[in-house]
Amino acid sequence: MKDSQSHSCCSFSADKEKKTGKKKSVTIFGYPLSIFFIVVNEFCERFSYYGMRAVLVLYFKYFLKWDDDFSTTIYHTFVALCYLSPILGAIIADSWLGKFKTIVYLSIVYTAGQVIMAVGAINDITDGNKDGTPDNMTFHIALSMVGLLLIALGTGGIKPCVAAFGGDQFNEDQEKQRSTFFSIFYLSINAGSLLSTIITPILRAQKCGIHTQQQCYPLAFGVPAALMVVSLIVFIVGSGMYNKTAPSGNIMVKVCKCIFFAIMNRFHNRSSQIPKREHWLDWAEEKYDKLLIAQVKMVLKVLFLYIPLPMFWALFDQQGSRWTLQATTMDGNFGLMVIQPDQMQTVNPILILIMVPVMDFIIYPLISKCKLNFTPLRKITVGMFLAGLAFVAAALVQLQIDATLPDFPSSTEQQAKFINMVNRSIDITAGKYAFQLQTLQVGLYRVEKRNILVTTFGDVVAKPEEGANAIRFFNGFGMTLNITVGEEGFGNIVSKNMSTYVDVPQGTAEFVIKNAAGSTCAFKREFGFGSSYTFIIPPTFILEENDIKANSIHMAWQIPQYFLMTSGEVVFSVTGLEFSYSQAPSNMKAVLQAGWLLTVAVGNIIVLIVAEAATLPDQWAEYVLFAALLVLVCIIFAIMAYFYTYIDPVQIEADFANLEPEDEKKKNLEMTKKDMVENHDEKKRRSSNEGKIHRVPALLVN
């Protein structure tokens, strides 16, 4: 119903209330006020989810101290659960609690999971000796895993409910407003995703802690948890304005029952004497009507095309795992600002906002003008191919990164460093190895472990974590020195001794050196990302030795692979959903939505299998492996698409509707003939048994 007064923007709508059973709703500019709460709820929830997910793999690597492979495995296990649980959420909402209660209850579970994640990231809880390292890492791992499990159940469970619940707020005559709502709803998802992937990495990079200052993962998880609390409160506040439809049964359950009955019925009638039927689903005709069976056939035809699609998602979702880990070994200095490795994920939503209109208004019209038949299935094929190219680009970047990494010693080797602090050259012999060092010269040599009996000072054997720079000092001065950089200290370094490594962030660092007499001197040094330096202090001046060079490959080199992946996503994902909906019966679009989400879950499971099974020594080789697998799957899908015949579900359903009266007439005619035969048999039985008394068992009477 339109506004009761043309000059008023706010009114109460009760249009078709008696027919639809919907309550009066406050409207603003023709839109139910209740959708405001739903849009805000979705924005906060998406901010919460993507914000937490943006820093998750780095939390595994740097806080829980897991290696890259195990961090990737757990990350993709979590994502897979997030896309498996929507099926459970849809069944609960449609068959038991209804959409409103499902959203509220699972949002509480979701919020609890986010809070537990934030608490589990506080290292001071178990840091009894106040050294900055948790004493009981098992406790933090347990909290993190419980939190992630609750988040997966919550975010996945409400995923199929929120958008549908928003659609329920509109009357039948508000199709235009409903369409606009879904556009705004999708915009809120992307806005939440974009802002969170910018903000939470910044929060993570802050220093916080009670005993020691470290990367602030509690804040990075705490803010998404707070947004989830806001999301839940906003949604509950609007409760009195919502149209809440009662559960009416889940179509997915009905489809599964139909398929199961057809399989079992075919199994029980597997005798060669029983006539075969045109399609195996036709064995469900004894229990289900022909229209439902025809609809299930259409759905299964599309689901069959879904089989190769998980491979695309296996590559796509590695933006948050492998690609983020790749960025940790790159230079994030963009001049006026420094980009954190996990912030590179923002390139994807930014490019989506650009690429969607570019594809719709430029690329597709140009292809159409060239008179090329760019069908939906061909678009999906191109999208998969672009994703494969993105991983080829990632492999090329990785090769450049590997060329800049130091050659660390193997497990059977020992790296030895010698510093000549005397005013003459010296000769050094270590087993069969012999070398000469000039005054103040530093020599680095790779020898077998058994040839070096004593190692006084150990070098770093891996790139410094989180883009920091590992710095240490060798005191060749004649007295004890105390050295500080900012709030960090190297402690008192006695003469002819080496300090421990201290992590210094990217940027300009000022070192202050104080001797036992109280004299001080200071010097500044500019650092990049991931370098390692040993500063040698001879009696007269400071000499630096570069152990590991700073990251020299710029993060901007990741943009081409993000561009290719996002282009593939726009062509693949948007077209895939559009194709699925066009080929699905009107009442079974939710089934295909569940199937589509299932392909995402399976794709993440594929990553788990490859990450654990493929023992490739180089990361670039793994990228090439994934690209090759996707190209292979792309070829298989192209062949399947070639033999696919497009259908019109609306026309098929209309044809069945026209056939129903004829079927009903045949059914009535058969029943009439059956009744006539039964009546004739009854008359014969009565005449032949006239005068006799019969006792009918009570069981038959009942």
Write a structural description.
Strand 17 (532-537) and strand 18 (543-548) form a beta hairpin. The chain is α+β, with helices and mostly antiparallel strands. The model is unreliable at 1-21, 449-455, 664-678 and 682-702 (pLDDT under 50). 37% of the residues are buried. Strands 10, 13, 14, 17 and 18 form a 5-stranded mixed beta sheet that branches. Strands 12-11-15-16 form a 4-stranded antiparallel beta sheet, with no helix packed on it. It folds into 4 domains: 25-249, MFS general substrate transporter like domains (Growth Hormone, Chain: A), CATH 1.20.1250.20; 289-404 and 554-649, MFS general substrate transporter like domains (Growth Hormone, Chain: A); 407-441, no CATH class; 459-548, Immunoglobulin-like (Sandwich), CATH 2.60.40. The chain contains 19 helices and 18 strands. It has helices at residues 17-20, 34-54, 56-63, 68-97, 99-120, 137-167, 175-205, 217-237, 251-268, 290-305, 310-316, 322-327, 347-369, 376-404, 559-582, 589-613, 619-642, 649-688, 698-701, and strands at 10-13, 25-28, 31-32, 207-208, 214-215, 413-419, 426-430, 433-437, 442-448, 469-475, 481-485, 488-493, 497-498, 502-504, 507-515, 520-527, 532-537, 543-548. Helix 4 (68-97) packs antiparallel against helix 16 (589-613).
